[in-house]
Batch of 2 targets.
Target 1
Amino acid sequence: MHRPIFEQVCVIGLGLIGASFAQAIKDNGLSERLVAVDSHAPSITEAIEHGLLDAGSANLQDVISGSDLIIIAVPVQAVQAVFVDIKQAMDNGQLAADCILTDVCSTKVNIIDAAKAVFGSLPVGLVPAHPIAGAENSGYHARRASLFVNHSVIICELATTSNVAITKLRLLWESVGANVISMDAGHHDRILAHTSHLPHLLAFNLVEQLASHDDNLDIFRYAAGGFRDFTRIAASDPKMWHDIFFANKSAIVSALDEYGVYLQTMRQLIIDKDSTALMGLLGRAQAARRHFGHMLASTPYTDTSAMSASYNITPSNTVSGTIAIPGDKSISHRSIMLGSLATGVTHVTGFLEGEDALATLQAFRDMGVTIEGPDNGNLTIHGVGMNGLKPSKTPLYMGNSGTSMRLLSGILAAQSFDSVLTGDTSLNKRPMERVAAPLRTMGAVIQSTGHSGTAPLSITGRDTAGKPLQGTEYNMPVASAQVKSCLLLAGLWAEGTTTVTQPEISRDHTERMLSAFGYPVIVEGNRISVTGGGTLTGGDIAVPADISSAAFFMVGAAISQNSELTLTQVGINPTRTGVIDILKLMNADISLSNEAHVGGEPVADITIRSSNLVGIEIPEHLVPLAIDEFPVLFVAASCAKGRTVLTGAKELRVKESDRIAVMAEGLQTLGIDCTVTDDGLIIEGKGTATENGDINNSQPVFGGGHIVSHHDHRIAMSFSVASLRAAEQITIEGVETVNTSFPGFAELANQIGMSIQVDTDAE
Ligand code: S3P
C-alpha cells in the first residue's frame, strides 16, 4: 500500500484501460476517493457495488467536483467533447484551474490540439500520456490491476505543464508498476504509426483482400498459421481503429507510403528473380527480428536495462568431461568484416552466435551485404568487394561490443558515405578516442559525440570529407589489438603505407586473416604494416573454439577436486595463450594434445586437472596475452596458496566494466582478502594444499553471497566458477550479457558437474 497522492481521482470511461487504472489506483491506495463517469450504467453500478468507486454517473457534472486528477479514458475522437465538459466544470468552480488532466489515448498530437481548441491556451495541469498495455478482451469486466506492471507509459511533458502535475502523474504511474518514459508528442505519434497503427492497418487490409475473393471460403478454410498470426489483430475494435487512423492521419500516411516503397522493391526482386538481393532482404529482416526478439518478447518500450537474469548456483566441487567450447569471438568478428569486403563467397564454420559477433553481422547486413545463416555456426557471406558497402539507413547498433565498434570505425572512416555507430549503455561509456584520434591523423573525419570521447560516433564519408585517407605511422600507447586492427583496416583504403607499432604483442587475428584473404601484411617484430589499394579474396574460414571462453572451465577444473576436463580444438594462437602460461606458472596441471592448424590459426585439445595452485607475480608481458582472462584468473589466485600480484593491467579498468574494481568487490563479498592498486590487484590466496598435499581434498575458500556482475559477461562467468570452491550458494545478478560471448554457458557448466540455475525476470 502507498500513501494517497490524490484526494479524488475521476476516471472518465470505464473500458479496459480506464477500469484497470482505477482498480490499480484503488488496490494501491493512491487516492482518497475514486469516482467515474461512463454512459454504460451497469458498469458504474457494478463498480460501486464492487467497492471500486465511491461515486459514479453518466454525467460528468454529477461527480467531478473536487477532483484533483482527471483520467480521460475514452476513444480518441471523444476526447474533445470531454474537454468541453471539463472546461465548463472549471468555469463554474467545480474544478480548480490547476487540476491535473491526463488521458490514455494512443495518439498524442490530436489530444493537444483538442485541448487548445477548447481551452484556448493549454491548461497547466495537462499531461498527455499513453500506457503501452492492452489485452485481447475489452470492457470493464476485463480489467486487471496488474495490467501496467512492467509496461511502459509514455508521457508528454509539455512546456506549459506545471512541474507538480508532471511529478505527481509520474509517481502515480510508477506506483502502479509502470516504467515512465518522456517523449515529445510528435515523436510518439510517428513511432506508434510504425509500430502499432501500420500493422493493424495491414492486418485489416489483408483480411479484407482475402475475404473479397470469390473463393474466400476456401481461402479461410485452408488458411495456414501465417495468416492467423498475421491477422490476429484485425479482430480488434473497428471503431477504435477508425478513430486512431484519422487522429494520427499524417504519420500513418507517411508510414504507409514508406511501406509501399518497400513492397514495390520486393515485388521487383521477385519479378527479376534476383535471388541474392531477395535472400539479403529476407535474411536482414529475419536477423533483425531475432535481434530484437528479446525486446519484442518483453513489453514494448520497457527499459531493457531493467530486464535481467540471474544465476543461482549451488556449490559443487568437481568437474569432468570432454566438451566443445563455442567459436572464438575475435575471429568471428573478423570473418564477417573481411568476408563482406572480399570478392567472392566466404563460407564460415564454427562462427560464434553470441550477441557481440551478431552485432557485427547485422551491421554488414545493414550495409547491404547478403549473409546467409548463421545456421549452427555456418555462414555464407556474399562479399561485395572493397568498394561495395552501402550506407546504412539507420545508425549501426553495436550492442555491447567494443570490438565491433572499434574495428568498424576504421573501415567506415574510409568509406565514401557517412555513418553513425552506437551501442548499449555500457559500450557508450567506453573510450573511443583511442581509435578516433589516430584515425584523424590519417585524415578521417570522426566525432565522438558522447560525453568524454565516447560513442555515438559520427563518421563523415570521403565523398564529403575529401581525399582518401593517408597512410600513417602510429605508435600505440597501449597494446590494444582493437586499436591496431582499426588502423590496419583503415589502411586498406589509405594512400601509401600504414604502420602500427605496439608496445607489447597483442592478438594478431587481423593480420593472420588478412593474409589468409590474400592481402599482404608485413610484420617486423612489434611493427605491422599494410599498404592501401589491395583486394581481399573470399574463401573458407574455420573458427576455432574461444580460449577466452575455455578459460572459465580451465580454472574450474584446476581449482576443484577429482577433476579432469578436456576442451576440444581450442584456438592456441600464441598471442592468446597468456592464460595457459599464467596457470602453468601457478603450477596448474595442463597439457595440450591433437595440435593442428585450422584456417591459419593453431588449435589443440586442452586437458586440465585438479591442481595445487600457488600464488605468483604475473609477468607484465603476459598481460595483453591474457587480457580477457584476468577475472577468472583472480578466482584461480583466490584458491592458490600465497599471494598473487597483478601489475601493468590498467586496461582492465576500461573493459565491459572496471574489471579490477568489480572483481575486487565480488571477491571481498565472498570473503577474499584483496587490495586494489592503480594498475592491478593483489590477492591473498586461501589455498592450503602444498605441492605434496592432497589436491583432492580441497576446502572451500569462498563463502556464499550475492554478486553484482555490472552487466559484464566475464564477471558473471568468473564468479560462477568460484562456486566450485564455495561453502554456500552464490547468486549472480545481471547475467544476461553472458550471451554476448558464451551462449549456452550455464548448460555446458551443468553438463560437466556444476549446478547453475538461471532465473529470468523479464516477461
Ligand atoms: C579484442 C581485443 C581485446 C579484447 C577484446 C577483443 C579483439 O581488446 O579485450 O575482448 O577482438 O581485438 P583490446 O585490444 O582493446 O585490449
Target 2
Amino acid sequence: MIAICPGSFDPVTHGHLDVISRAAALFDHVIVAVGQNSAKQYLFSAAERLELVRETTAHLPNVSVEPLDGLLVAFAKARGAGVLVKGIRNASDVDFELQMAHINAVVGSVETVMLPTAPVWSTLSSTMVREVASFGGDVSPFVPEVVARRIRHKSQGTEQANG
Ligand code: PNS
C-alpha cells in the first residue's frame, strides 16, 4: 500500500523524519508531499523545502518526495495512495487531525493513520525551529546537519543556489 506524508516541512525536523521513517517501515511506499499552506509565511522556498526533504530521506529506499499543489486527496488519488500518515504530538494535534481526517475521508475516500511522535520530539515544531533560528540560536539538536547548515547560511546571507 502507498501512503502519503504531507506537510510544509519548513524546515524538515527530526520529528518529521521519525514519522516518515516509521511510515516507511509500515507501508510499501511512502510519498512525502511537500505542500504550501496559504496561511503560512515560509522561511524556505518550496524548492528549498523539497530539496532538504529529498536529501534527508535519501537513505530510505521506499520513500519518494514530491511537491504538492492543489488538494491533498486529489494528489493521493492520482498516485494510487489510500492512506495519509500524520504525526501526533499532543491532544491539540489530535483535535486538528480528526477534523482533517473526516474531511479527507468524505471528500477523497482516503484513510488517515495517526502515528504518535517519539516522545523525544513531542514538543518539537518547525515553528519553534524558525523562531530560534530567527534570533541566531543553535537549531542543530532539532534538525539534520544539512538543514542546520542551510539555516546558518541563510541567516548569514551567504547562501548559494546549491550550497
Ligand atoms: O505542515 P503543514 O503546514 O501542516 O502542512 C499543510 C499542508 C501543506 C500539507 C496542507 O495545507 C495541505 O494538505 N494543503 C493542500 C490543500 C488541502 O488538501 N488541504 C486540506 C483540505 S481540508
